[in-house]
Specification:
Layout (H helix, E strand, L loop, with lengths): L4 H8 L3 H10 L8 H6 L4 H26 L2 H8 L5 E7 L8 E7 L17 H14 L2 E7 L1 H7 L1 H14 L7 E5 L10 E4 L2 H4 L1 H24 L5 H4 L5 H10 L10 H6 L18
Parallel strand pairs: 1-4, 4-5
Antiparallel strand pairs: 1-2, 2-3
Helix pairs in contact: 2-4, 6-10, 7-8
Length: 284
């Protein structure tokens, strides 16, 4: 934003704390020439503010470049004429308890959301904030769930695919193309592509991973109230020392996965002979 030099001089008459509140804390875009003027200001605090604003400019450029790279796969598909592109990912493969949850998200074209990334790289507060924004901005979003019984019956690999298919089927706007983290969804007629580490490489898949993770975390907090003593609200069902201790003391609850070895051991059962991650086609 270009403003006359006279207005820059007027801004420099203000206290540094006021300039900081406006342009650093509130993130209002600094007019062109202000940072340069602050860099030569006689006030130490003014020069410090200039350095912080410069650092933020560099951070914003780096983040902008990252977000553009995150749209690489989507941009290629948009150029090919696919308008609605869904990203799909799941959360909850590793836990000993609770469902596996998938998210499906169709983002607006050229959508960029600061800090959007693989949900596993984000803190809880950031994930929750991003999830709210994604739900507000998305063309469509949905979740799909496969329960403990389905995990034990199908195995976690196929239960995860089932949750993914349910998420896609739940979208209010059906996509023209689907990008999936690491695999493809059987029984889904829409063209699709699996991308290894897709939650770090595709904005749509990253958004789906955030929706899946935050949804499942919320479910586990609710289940903690129903099945107290296991610490589900804290570890979300993952195999932690506290969870193992609770299993030994309390035994398995109805939401524990009987096909998982630590759960079977807690129940005094023989290890399951069925592979948890068997990938041969099975009906889902």
């Amino acid at each position: 934003m270009q403003i006359p030099m006279s207005q820059i001089e007027e801004l420099l008459q203000q206290p540094v704390w006021r300039l900081k509140a406006r342009y650093f804390n509130e993130r209002e875009r600094a007019p062109r020439g202000l940072i340069e003027a602050l860099e030569t200001d006689s006030r130490v605090r003014a020069r410090e503010l200039a350095a912080r604003l410069r650092a933020r400019e560099r951070e914003n450029r780096v983040e902008g470049q990252r977000l553009r790279r995150l749209l690489k796969y989507e941009s290629e598909l948009w150029q090919q004429g696919f308008a609605l592109i869904a990203g799909v990912d799941e959360a909850g493969v590793g836990p000993l308890a609770g469902p596996v949850v998938a998210g499906a998200v169709v983002l607006p074209r050229d959508y960029k959301l600061r800090e959007l990334d693989d949900s596993k790289k984000l803190g809880e507060a950031t994930r929750e904030q991003l999830a709210r924004q994604i739900k507000s901005d998305a063309v469509a979003w949905a979740v799909g769930v496969a329960g403990v019984e389905e995990i034990d019956d199908l195995n976690i690999f196929h239960a995860g695919l089932l949750a993914m298919r349910r998420a896609v089927e739940g979208l209010k706007a059906q996509p023209d193309f689907i990008l999936v983290d690491a695999r493809t969804i059987p029984g889904c007629p829409t063209p699709q592509r699996g991308i290894v580490r897709g939650d770090s490489l595709s904005a749509s898949i990253a958004a789906a991973s955030v929706i899946a993770k935050t949804t499942r975390d919320g479910m586990m907090i609710e289940l903690d109230r129903e099945y107290p003593g296991y610490g589900l609200a804290a570890h979300k069902g993952y195999p932690t020392p506290r969870h193992f201790e609770a299993l030994r003391e309390l035994g398995a609850s109805p939401i524990h996965r009987r096909s998982y070895r630590p759960v079977r051991e807690a129940m005094g059962l023989e290890p399951s002979q069925k592979s948890l991650f068997e990938t041969e086609p099975r009906p889902v």
